[in-house]
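Review form for a predicted model. The reviewer records the input and the model, then writes brief findings.
Reviewer: anonymous (R2)
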Amino acid sequence: MSNKILNILLVEDDEVDVMNVQRSFKRNNVVNPLYIAGNGLEALDMLRGVDGAQPAIPEERRLILLDLNMPKMNGIEFLREVRKDPKLQKIPVVVLTTSDEDRDKVAAYELNVAGYILKPVTLTSFIETMAALNHYWMLSELP
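Model under review:
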């Protein structure tokens, strides 16, 4: 089962949403390590390692859960940077956002996201969404 462990980076600036993801993981017995970045710039530093340091997130079996509406560097800008970086470009990214805008969906899919999920309004719905995501990545054969 340890070969199914994913290193998950949640890129999210809303503390309530961070807590909802953490609660959802706990309720669904998700044991994958969860790393949290408050914006795209912080996430890139965590993925790349800052000033030559080791990345804060192990380089194998990574998955990114990405909000789009964030300060400093929004989700689409972050995705563009990730897709340009040869060391990061193959990391699967699932957008988890409140944006139901067609332009955001199109931009995200043009940048090869693995999925686009609207954030559920209630905690119960959030828990169900995270359970479905967990089930999906347990079945996926990520390198």
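Findings: The chain has a mean pLDDT of 87.
Further findings: The longest strand covers residues 7-11.
Recommendation: see findings above.
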